[in-house]
Protein backbone atom coordinates (compact mmCIF):
# COMPACT_ATOMS: atom_id res chain seq x y z
CA UNK A 1 0.00 0.00 0.00
CA UNK A 2 1.31 3.45 -0.94
CA UNK A 3 1.46 6.36 1.49
CA UNK A 4 0.82 9.56 -0.42
CA UNK A 5 2.58 12.81 0.41
CA UNK A 6 -0.69 14.33 -0.88
CA UNK A 7 1.32 16.33 -3.40
CA UNK A 8 0.33 14.83 -6.73
CA UNK A 9 3.50 15.97 -8.50
CA UNK A 10 5.74 14.13 -6.05
CA UNK A 11 3.54 11.07 -5.63
CA UNK A 12 3.40 10.55 -9.39
CA UNK A 13 7.21 10.62 -9.71
CA UNK A 14 7.59 8.22 -6.77
CA UNK A 15 5.28 5.60 -8.21
CA UNK A 16 2.09 6.70 -6.44
CA UNK A 17 3.56 7.60 -3.07
CA UNK A 18 5.86 6.15 -0.44
CA UNK A 19 6.04 2.48 0.47
CA UNK A 20 5.01 1.55 4.01
CA UNK A 21 8.07 0.96 6.15
CA UNK A 22 10.18 3.30 4.01
CA UNK A 23 12.43 6.26 4.72
CA UNK A 24 12.55 9.51 2.76
CA UNK A 25 15.46 11.95 3.09
CA UNK A 26 14.64 15.61 2.55
CA UNK A 27 17.86 17.49 1.90
CA UNK A 28 18.06 21.28 1.90
CA UNK A 29 20.37 24.24 2.38
CA UNK A 30 20.49 27.18 4.76
CA UNK A 31 17.80 29.38 3.16
CA UNK A 32 15.41 26.63 2.09
CA UNK A 33 11.82 26.22 3.28
CA UNK A 34 12.05 22.42 3.03
CA UNK A 35 11.70 21.74 6.75
CA UNK A 36 8.35 23.56 6.76
CA UNK A 37 7.29 21.61 3.70
CA UNK A 38 7.95 18.38 5.63
CA UNK A 39 5.80 19.63 8.50
CA UNK A 40 3.07 20.48 5.99
CA UNK A 41 3.13 16.87 4.75
CA UNK A 42 2.75 15.82 8.38
CA UNK A 43 -0.20 18.18 8.84
CA UNK A 44 -1.95 16.77 5.77
CA UNK A 45 -1.32 13.16 6.78
CA UNK A 46 -2.66 13.80 10.30
CA UNK A 47 -5.83 15.24 8.74
CA UNK A 48 -6.06 12.00 6.74
CA UNK A 49 -6.06 9.99 9.96
CA UNK A 50 -2.40 9.23 10.66
CA UNK A 51 -0.53 9.57 13.94
CA UNK A 52 2.46 11.91 13.79
CA UNK A 53 5.69 11.79 15.81
CA UNK A 54 8.21 14.63 15.67
CA UNK A 55 11.71 13.73 16.90
CA UNK A 56 13.01 17.18 17.84
CA UNK A 57 16.80 17.43 18.01
CA UNK A 58 17.32 21.00 16.88
CA UNK A 59 15.08 23.63 18.48
CA UNK A 60 13.37 24.86 21.64
CA UNK A 61 9.80 23.59 21.69
CA UNK A 62 8.37 27.07 21.11
CA UNK A 63 10.35 27.32 17.88
CA UNK A 64 8.99 23.92 16.77
CA UNK A 65 5.43 25.09 17.44
CA UNK A 66 5.90 28.34 15.51
CA UNK A 67 7.54 26.58 12.57
CA UNK A 68 4.73 24.05 12.45
CA UNK A 69 2.13 26.83 12.58
CA UNK A 70 3.77 28.45 9.55
CA UNK A 71 3.45 25.09 7.80
CA UNK A 72 -0.24 24.74 8.67
CA UNK A 73 0.17 22.34 11.60
CA UNK A 74 -1.42 23.25 14.94
CA UNK A 75 0.89 21.30 17.24
CA UNK A 76 -0.98 22.01 20.48
CA UNK A 77 -4.42 21.17 19.08
CA UNK A 78 -3.33 17.96 17.36
CA UNK A 79 -1.27 16.92 20.38
CA UNK A 80 -4.17 17.40 22.75
CA UNK A 81 -6.42 15.37 20.43
CA UNK A 82 -3.95 12.47 20.48
CA UNK A 83 -2.85 12.87 16.87
CA UNK A 84 0.70 14.10 17.50
CA UNK A 85 3.57 13.22 19.82
CA UNK A 86 6.85 15.11 20.21
CA UNK A 87 9.94 13.39 21.57
CA UNK A 88 11.98 16.40 22.65
CA UNK A 89 15.68 15.53 22.66
CA UNK A 90 16.64 19.21 22.53
CA UNK A 91 14.96 20.00 25.83
CA UNK A 92 16.24 16.72 27.27
CA UNK A 93 19.84 17.78 26.63
CA UNK A 94 19.35 21.03 28.54
CA UNK A 95 17.17 19.69 31.36
CA UNK A 96 14.06 21.63 30.31
CA UNK A 97 10.84 19.94 31.54
CA UNK A 98 8.02 19.41 29.02
CA UNK A 99 5.32 22.07 28.86
CA UNK A 100 2.65 19.90 27.24
CA UNK A 101 1.34 16.39 28.02
CA UNK A 102 2.07 15.17 24.48
CA UNK A 103 5.75 16.22 24.67
CA UNK A 104 8.14 13.66 26.16
CA UNK A 105 11.71 14.15 27.30
CA UNK A 106 14.38 11.59 28.13
CA UNK A 107 15.34 11.41 31.78
CA UNK A 108 18.83 11.06 33.18
CA UNK A 109 22.05 10.95 31.19
CA UNK A 110 21.61 11.05 27.41
CA UNK A 111 24.54 9.40 25.72
CA UNK A 112 25.35 7.13 22.81
CA UNK A 113 24.47 4.00 24.81
CA UNK A 114 21.24 5.31 26.34
CA UNK A 115 19.44 7.50 23.80
CA UNK A 116 17.97 4.73 21.62
CA UNK A 117 16.82 2.47 24.52
CA UNK A 118 15.16 5.43 26.22
CA UNK A 119 13.58 6.47 22.93
CA UNK A 120 12.00 3.09 22.28
CA UNK A 121 10.72 2.92 25.84
CA UNK A 122 8.73 6.08 25.04
CA UNK A 123 7.44 4.45 21.86
CA UNK A 124 6.39 1.34 23.76
CA UNK A 125 4.72 3.16 26.63
CA UNK A 126 3.34 6.34 25.04
CA UNK A 127 3.03 5.89 21.26
CA UNK A 128 2.14 2.26 20.63
CA UNK A 129 -0.91 2.15 22.98
CA UNK A 130 -2.36 5.19 21.18
CA UNK A 131 -1.60 4.08 17.62
CA UNK A 132 -4.38 1.58 16.93
CA UNK A 133 -4.68 0.83 13.21
CA UNK A 134 -3.30 4.21 12.17
CA UNK A 135 -0.21 4.73 10.07
CA UNK A 136 2.68 6.30 11.96
CA UNK A 137 4.44 9.19 10.23
CA UNK A 138 7.67 10.24 11.91
CA UNK A 139 9.59 13.44 11.14
CA UNK A 140 13.21 13.58 12.33
CA UNK A 141 13.57 17.30 12.97
CA UNK A 142 16.48 17.46 12.21
CA UNK A 143 19.15 14.82 11.59
CA UNK A 144 21.93 17.41 11.46
CA UNK A 145 20.82 18.44 14.96
CA UNK A 146 21.55 14.91 16.16
CA UNK A 147 24.96 15.10 14.45
CA UNK A 148 25.69 18.39 16.21
CA UNK A 149 25.19 16.85 19.65
CA UNK A 150 26.90 13.49 19.13
CA UNK A 151 29.20 13.93 16.12
CA UNK A 152 28.50 12.64 12.64
CA UNK A 153 29.82 9.08 12.97
CA UNK A 154 27.96 8.45 16.20
CA UNK A 155 24.79 10.03 14.76
CA UNK A 156 24.95 7.67 11.77
CA UNK A 157 25.36 4.64 14.03
CA UNK A 158 22.38 5.78 16.11
CA UNK A 159 20.34 6.35 12.94
CA UNK A 160 21.09 2.93 11.48
CA UNK A 161 20.08 1.19 14.71
CA UNK A 162 17.03 3.42 15.07
CA UNK A 163 15.72 2.68 11.58
CA UNK A 164 16.21 -1.08 11.98
CA UNK A 165 14.38 -1.12 15.32
CA UNK A 166 11.71 1.37 14.28
CA UNK A 167 10.67 -0.53 11.17
CA UNK A 168 10.52 -3.74 13.20
CA UNK A 169 8.20 -2.10 15.74
CA UNK A 170 6.14 -0.08 13.24
CA UNK A 171 6.02 -1.71 9.79
CA UNK A 172 2.99 0.48 9.02
CA UNK A 173 5.00 3.69 9.09
CA UNK A 174 7.05 6.20 7.13
CA UNK A 175 10.07 8.19 8.36
CA UNK A 176 11.06 11.60 6.98
CA UNK A 177 14.69 12.56 7.63
CA UNK A 178 15.40 16.28 7.46
CA UNK A 179 19.03 17.19 6.74
CA UNK A 180 20.53 20.66 6.32
CA UNK A 181 23.39 19.90 3.90
CA UNK A 182 25.23 23.09 4.90
CA UNK A 183 25.51 21.86 8.51
CA UNK A 184 27.09 18.44 7.85
CA UNK A 185 29.77 16.87 5.67
CA UNK A 186 29.34 15.30 2.23
CA UNK A 187 30.17 11.95 3.80
CA UNK A 188 27.25 12.31 6.22
CA UNK A 189 24.86 13.25 3.41
CA UNK A 190 26.06 10.33 1.30
CA UNK A 191 25.35 7.87 4.11
CA UNK A 192 21.87 9.29 4.66
CA UNK A 193 21.11 9.10 0.93
CA UNK A 194 22.37 5.53 0.82
CA UNK A 195 20.08 4.31 3.61
CA UNK A 196 16.99 6.19 2.35
CA UNK A 197 14.43 4.70 -0.03
CA UNK A 198 13.48 8.13 -1.40
CA UNK A 199 15.51 11.33 -1.68
CA UNK A 200 14.30 14.88 -2.36
CA UNK A 201 16.91 17.62 -2.64
CA UNK A 202 15.90 21.29 -2.22
CA UNK A 203 18.35 23.80 -3.70
CA UNK A 204 17.72 27.48 -3.03
CA UNK A 205 19.02 30.62 -4.73
CA UNK A 206 18.74 34.18 -3.46
CA UNK A 207 17.68 36.53 -6.24
CA UNK A 208 16.41 40.12 -6.42
CA UNK A 209 12.90 38.69 -6.63
CA UNK A 210 13.34 36.58 -3.50
CA UNK A 211 14.37 33.00 -2.74
CA UNK A 212 13.93 30.56 -5.61
CA UNK A 213 14.07 26.82 -4.94
CA UNK A 214 14.56 23.92 -7.31
CA UNK A 215 13.65 20.44 -6.09
CA UNK A 216 15.36 17.35 -7.45
CA UNK A 217 13.60 14.04 -6.81
CA UNK A 218 16.76 12.00 -7.17
CA UNK A 219 15.91 8.59 -5.71
CA UNK A 220 12.85 6.37 -5.44
CA UNK A 221 13.06 2.60 -5.22
CA UNK A 222 10.32 1.88 -7.73
CA UNK A 223 10.79 0.19 -11.14
CA UNK A 224 9.26 3.06 -13.09
CA UNK A 225 11.23 5.86 -11.39
CA UNK A 226 12.97 8.54 -13.42
CA UNK A 227 14.61 11.59 -11.73
CA UNK A 228 12.59 14.79 -12.02
CA UNK A 229 13.20 18.48 -11.32
CA UNK A 230 10.54 20.85 -10.00
CA UNK A 231 10.36 24.48 -9.04
CA UNK A 232 9.19 24.82 -5.43
CA UNK A 233 6.59 27.56 -5.02
CA UNK A 234 5.44 29.18 -1.80
CA UNK A 235 1.98 30.69 -1.59
CA UNK A 236 1.22 30.90 -5.33
CA UNK A 237 -1.33 28.08 -5.36
CA UNK A 238 -2.90 28.82 -1.98
CA UNK A 239 -5.98 30.62 -3.31
CA UNK A 240 -6.83 27.76 -5.65
CA UNK A 241 -5.91 24.71 -3.55
CA UNK A 242 -5.56 25.93 0.02
CA UNK A 243 -1.96 24.73 0.09
CA UNK A 244 0.92 26.94 1.19
CA UNK A 245 3.36 25.06 -1.07
CA UNK A 246 3.20 23.75 -4.62
CA UNK A 247 5.43 22.38 -7.38
CA UNK A 248 5.87 23.10 -11.07
CA UNK A 249 7.89 20.96 -13.43
CA UNK A 250 10.95 22.76 -14.75
CA UNK A 251 10.48 23.51 -18.45
CA UNK A 252 6.70 23.67 -18.34
UniProtKB/TrEMBL annotation:
Gene3D superfamilies: P-loop containing nucleotide triphosphate hydrolases. InterPro entries: P-loop_NTPase. This is KaiC-like domain-containing protein. It comes from the Archaea.
